[in-house]
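Re-running Extracellular protein to confirm reproducibility after the cluster update. Everything else is unchanged from the original entry.
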Amino acid sequence: MRFIIGLLCLTLSFLWGFQVFAQSVKPSVAFMYSEPPDQVLYTYDWIVVDPDVFTPEKIKERFYVKRRGKLIAYFSLGEVEPFRKFFKHVRKSWILGKNKAWKSFVVDLRNKECFEFMLKKASALLKSYDGIFLDTLDSYQMVLPKKEWKSYERRKVEFIKALRRNYPKKIIMVNRGFDVYPQVKSLIDAVVVESLYKGLDAKLNYVDVGNRERQWLLDKLKKIKEEKPVVVIDYLPSNKEQEARRVAKRLIKEGFIPWVADKNLTEVGEGVFHILKRKILLVYDSSLEIPDESDVHRLIQLPLEWLGYEPVVVSVGDFSEKSLTSDVKGVVVWNIRGKKNKDKVIKLLLKAKKRGIKVFIVDLSVFSPEQLKHLNFELVSNRKPEEVPKIVYKGRTYGFEIKAYPFPTDSFVNPKGKYTPLLVLENSVGQKFIPVAITPWGGYGYSGYLLKDMFNDSLWVFDPFWLFSEVFGRLPFAPDVTTESGRRIMTVHLDGDGFADKSFVEYGKYVGEVLREKIFKVYKVPHTVSVIVGEVDPRGLYPKKAKKLMEVAKSIFSLPNVEPASHTYSHPFNWIDVYRMSMGLKPTDKRNLKYGYHLPIPGYVPSVKKEIDYSLEFIDKYLAPNGKKAKVLLWSGDCAPPPPVVERTYKLGVYNVNGGDTTIDDTFPYLCKVSPMGINKGKFFQVYAPVQNEEVYTKGWKIKDGYVRVISTFKLTDKPRRLKPISIYYHFYSAQFPLSFNALKKVYDWAMRQGTVPMFLSEYAQRVLEFRGASIAESNRDGNMYFCSSGSLKTVRLEGKGGIPSIDKSQGVVGYRRINGRIYVFLDDSRCRRIVFVNRDDNDFVLVSSNGMVKDFRKDVERGYYRLVLHSEVLPLKADLRVADTCSLRVGNGVNLKRKGGMVEVEARKKKVTVEAVCKR
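Result of re-run:
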């Protein structure tokens, strides 16, 4: 920015009233000239972006952001900047002068060629964006004599009229332009001004705005704000969050729409909403570990996700001051080696602490005494180095999975200043050692005392869920991807391996035929089914039987409860090397790979486009029926694709799933065997399979009926905390042998008895991606809490001490249920939901549980009207509602209602049900 310093009648009346209300509310507006995070896209109604930074192509990459605010393109009308792509086409005769502060040039709109050129550029933006923000409208006043101002003003009016004439439904915002406001006020949607309380001086330093300048601006805006929304942008450094929030609230009270942010508008600022920080950086050393196998990812990410945070894995090489953005809540470091890396990490951790970002160091023992001094630790020489110190104090949750076993040491490392010890050791001469503690700036652990190596893995000495809630704080509620409508989510997906094999369950038939008849048609829950395209392609691995295999695949994909997916073209086993080979480089894996780098398809040279693009296109063109397309790419082999390969799935707008290692069971019931939701690969995200497949449980098919052990995994990831949905994940070769097939049926039978919400894997993946970018925000208008996403993620969870959700006072809250002592709150599918908690439950209409998903929920509290629409992928659709005795219910034909006390049971043999209630007021 160039800164210039009856039920039917009742329903209809309800909808009309809602529209009037929506039109009367001022929009929330954000300005971000870096790439706006999903949180901003979800939360704000209008988002002004720099079109050179956030292009339509980048919007398409975020295909999962299905509901977002309107994107407004920034456009400098009165000036041109040398860094713009079109600057080379600007002629010298168009230039009136220079804006020295911003190193840009003031242009002459009175020049016909200049006017047409700028109009063409603005029009091109309006074709792609939802609106345009016209900046630098007043720049001509810096360089033109006053007698020429009127002629320039006329051209500005003509410009805005032309835009409105050509784009009558697009949003047009203007920066100031007080000179032409009377002529254009009917053409524009909002006025923007800068620096009412906090501004910038001529050298772009942050300053307080003087009283005279502020009063002059307030006088100008007094009438305008009664006619149009007025947005005020004030400027403060990004580390002045509390002050920025106070300014935003003051602007709201004065009738303005606020945005208070850094001078470059590249950080998340304070506006109508205060977005809570959820991002936590997980720093690992890439010289020791690959990101997928790093300890900080495997062991730390899961508890942080449970708490509602968004962990981001970052290599120490990529960790920089630029990483410490305004939306970062904390940093966790673990396993850093090498003096250079350690010095770098220490320096950045000190910067993080200075900015108020919480820091947690998993293992202090890797740092030298000198490095620890910088972090405000002291090294104490142990006067009894040969002695095993005794534990004299054990903090809360000690012994969570294993107890600590003290060991002799030459020295003790203890923090200076304030801290809360979680473990205190003491030797016989009274020297104390604090190996685990929480501090005002975060906390730390010491090798062997926070986590203990055991059985070739790491077990927790302290409860990490409690520990990290103390370190980083507890969010008002946590988004949840395990539960919907009060029931546990259930997914089923199949990798394509074994599709070309015959079955011994029914001799002579292909395994796909057996599964089609005995599983997919019997267990009518959603299935995401994939094939390895190179196995069914007539030009692939099996040309003689490809025709039959294609027929079987087509018959499976035509089933209503089957979602087609690709398991790639040649089933790469090592994705990094297949990527390298597709780039014409040599593979790096020196191991003698048993199966090679991919299936031995004659004449095939690895290609990422063939593995992903072609495989999806083949399924859509030759295997999927009309109206269906492959929405999911299931990773193969090591399931460790590098960032450019994951990026390819986003370019195509398909979900990518697989990887992870959730195998916790009765024989090893520890958290290290529960994986997080996935892993970020650069700015993209790989979604893990919620639970591992049958090959792991059968120990590589040594125990053919071993898959029944997955039931213990489902149980252990449900209690005491619901960490995962029920996820049945297997390959086609499970139908090859009677033992493995019968084990699979037992798993299905158990899952079908649990009362779940079955959904396709693409629907689960959508919820995971929404979890990453979802916004938990507090309104600076009224203090209410909001949860914003694309509308598919419809559950948030809070500990039992946060009160009861009020259906009437909230917006978009449908019901709630206590599960494992926690409250799971169910939401509708709108973008932003207001969640209000009260101490006493006085709700008249509450959804308690359903095997269906909430598709719509509307209410008119004054009239006591509620309307709930549920959709289920399985029949019968069932729902339990808690409805007050003063309410009368109405449902459509074929829906059975059974009232029992305050509960109402709904059951229907159709996938979509509408329940309406009218309650006496």
